[in-house]
Amino acid sequence: MMKDKNAKISIKELREHLKGHSKQELTDLLVESFKMSKEFQSYLSTKMKEDDGAQEHADIISFGAASKWMKIPQADRDMLLNNVFCGHCSDVVTIVDYTIEPDKFGIVLKGKCKNCGHEVARLVEMES
């Protein structure tokens, strides 16, 4: 098992530690891991795609989409997360348990309405 020079735990230990994390927590870790080893990113992607029965789809994130998302300033990302239309609530809501997926116009946030739990999505248009 390969260890990064600056790592304090082995990849095997990290895998054990991450077993109990939710897909949303793993998504957040994946986004932050861009500066970390490719092996760690690969493991997180694989782990998030495992079907645990909690969601219908297991397509969580792409590195390209996550990279685009992280280029958006934090204040703007927060505004986007809190400005999603829910057809069930007929109102603007906060998206939770979301995924970040590539789209020909930019990226798409797919998740659930914080209020009612129905599926919602938000297109974030970006220049190519």
Structure in words:
This protein has 128 residues and is α+β, with helices and mostly antiparallel strands. It folds into two domains: 6-55, no CATH class; 61-128, no CATH class. It has helices at residues 11-18, 23-32, 38-49, 63-71, 74-81; strands at 84-86, 91-93, 95-103, 106-113, 119-125. The chain has a three-stranded antiparallel sheet with strand order 3-4-5. Strands 1-2 form a two-stranded antiparallel sheet. The longest helix is centred in the middle third of the chain and has 12 residues, at 38-49. It is globular.
Structural descriptors:
alpha+beta, three-stranded antiparallel beta sheet, two-stranded antiparallel ribbon, 5 helices, 37% helix, globular
Proportion in helices: 25-40%
Poorly predicted runs of 5 or more residues: 51-60
How would you sum up the global shape? globular
User: How many domains?
Assistant: 2
Largest sheet: 3 strands, antiparallel
Strand order of the largest sheet: 3-4-5
By DSSP (H or I, 4+ residues per run), the number of helices equals 5
Q: How many runs of DSSP E, i.e. beta strands?
A: 5
Order of helices and strands: HHHHHEEEEE
The helix/strand class is: alpha+beta
**Binned strand content:** 15-25%
**Average pLDDT level:** 77
Termini Cα gap: 39 Å
Radius of gyration: 16 Å
